[in-house]
Design goal:
single chain; Spore Coat Polysaccharide Biosynthesis Protein SpsA, Chain A; alpha/beta; 481 residues; 23% helix; globular; Jelly Rolls
Length: 481
């Protein structure tokens, strides 16, 4: 038996603003522990027990092409250098993403069992999760499409529910019906009757079974994904489906496209099963969920970062860049970032999405990007900006280089803080070391490289009539931008 972890890396996590943003969504963040949510998901099956003849393949990720370099970097940081990345040219929800993954998993002739996990969930008991996956793979080996259900602890209206049917074995059932997110009265009834589980959005099934079912239930999605996969091309370490074919694919979720079709009342085929999962799971959909699963002090506060809390209770305080001091708060959420601060009542935290909506309506950059921007070569942080100047802190990874480029409207002054920079300026090339600087006149073709083994840190001072990131003419770029 071949086990293929599949990680779905879509979603923007706007309810976790200001930490999660469109250009840097929650799966890339360190919200619980030292690993990002993506890294934790990619390592989640490391404790899976396998028989001697079984094989666990390296993870297969499906995600937005915009995050390709940071996803690859995060995987390398945890030693997963052999993971495969499929880049979606646009978001089309989970059913097309899984179809691409299944096609890729079958491309070498195998028919593995796919363990499909969103990249933005928290599972605190990974041993229990691996035991549940082992149970689910046995069902999937027999042709079942398996999902996981969480025992409800409250009348939650933000989750979909699964009504359990015939018991197969302990904590294993056929699915009687999938139920949409309920109103409060229905959620209370579901909790009281004991026949319903929260839908965790994690799935286990054979690749061939999924491909057959998506063809039967949504032939349009199947055809579009097959066309996109047939037109794929390899770009460095990334697999790129055909852009036009995938863009024409209808958007739908795994549940809506297939699982709910197979479990409709009156036509339930008995092919969909659910395994009860007791592994301290959370989808961390909003800040109050992070408070619920976080380690609390004696005042039931979850404090992260450089935080001082005086007479504060039942609150989550997240200090990201500066000291955060709280006095006399109760039931509050406080999240600090370099360019935005959120202060909210914990009971009103779902309205954060309204803040993001207002920011978008006013075309403010805080809705989609942080002050610190990650690039394939490293990162830059805009630490000050004025009418005709901008100051950036730039970090270039060892062996990396920026594109060969020029600007029409700005000149640049570079000061090396640590490391060594190799600078191309016009026809000359030279090294700039710590405490040295150089000047790039407006209109001059230039490139910055890090030839060393340590990160290159430098300060860039831009001056000119226009300082936007779109004032870049690239002549050569190893990252294909």
């Amino acid at each position: 038996m071949r086990i293929q972890p599949v990680i779905l890396c879509g979603g923007s996590g706007t309810r976790l603003w200001p930490l999660s943003r469109q250009q840097y969504p929650k799966q890339l963040l360190r919200l619980c522990g030292e690993r990002t949510m993506l890294q934790a998901t990619a390592c989640r099956l490391s404790g899976l027990s396998l028989d001697a003849s079984d094989v666990q393949a390296p993870p297969l990720l499906v995600g937005n092409e915009e995050y390709r370099f940071i996803m690859a970097q995060q995987l390398h940081e945890v030693g997963l250098t052999d993971a495969s990345l499929i880049l979606e040219p646009c978001g089309r929800n989970t059913a097309p993403a899984l179809t691409l993954a299944a096609l890729a998993a079958r491309a070498d002739g195998h028919d593995p069992i796919l363990v499909v996990m969103p990249a933005d969930h928290v599972i605190q008991n990974e041993d229990a999760f691996c035991r549940a996956v082992t149970t689910a793979t046995a069902l999937a080996h027999d042709g079942k499409l398996v999902t996981f259900g969480i025992q409800p602890t409250a009348p939650e209206t933000g989750y979909g529910y699964i009504k359990v049917g015939t018991t197969l074995q302990e904590d294993m059932y056929l699915v009687d019906q999938f139920v949409e997110k309920p109103d409060l009265a229905k959620a209370e009834n579901y909790l009281a009757c004991g026949q319903y589980l929260w839908n965790a959005g994690i799935f286990v099934m054979k690749a061939s079974v999924w491909l057959a079912k998506i063809q039967a239930c949504r032939a349009d999605i199947s055809a579009a994904c097959l066309s996109a996969f047939d037109g794929r091309r390899q770009d460095q370490d990334f697999l790129r489906p055909d852009r036009s074919a995938f863009s024409a694919c209808p958007a739908d979720s795994i549940d809506y496209a297939v699982l709910e079709v197979l479990t409709r009342p009156g036509v339930n085929t008995g092919e969909v099963a659910v395994v009860r999962l007791d592994a301290h799971w959370s989808d961390v959909g909003a800040w109050n969920a992070l408070w619920e699963i976080g380690d609390k002090d004696d005042d039931r506060n979850v404090l992260m970062g450089d935080v001082i809390a005086i007479d504060t209770r039942n609150s989550l305080v997240f200090g990201n860049d500066r000291l955060v001091a709280c006095v006399g708060l109760d039931n509050a959420i406080v999240v600090e970032t370099p360019d935005a601060v959120l202060v909210a009542d914990k009971n009103q935290i779902q309205k954060v999405k309204d803040v993001v909506g207002r920011l978008k309506a006013h075309q403010r950059t805080e809705s989609y990007s942080h002050r610190k921007i990650f690039r394939p070569w490293g990162s830059y942080d805009s630490i000050d900006i004025g009418a005709r100047f901008q100051v950036k802190r730039i970090v270039v990874n060892p062996g990396a280089s920026l594109s060969l480029q020029m600007h029409h409207h700005r000149a640049e002054h570079w000061i090396v803080v640590s490391g060594t920079a190799k600078v191309t300026r016009g026809d000359e090339s030279f090294l700039v070391t710590e405490n040295q600087s150089t000047y790039i006149p407006l209109g001059t073709v230039h490139r910055l490289e890090n030839p060393g083994k340590l990160p290159l840190e430098m300060i860039e001072v831009q001056s000119g009539s226009y300082l936007g990131e779109d004032d870049i003419i690239r002549f050569d770029d190893q990252y294909g931008r």
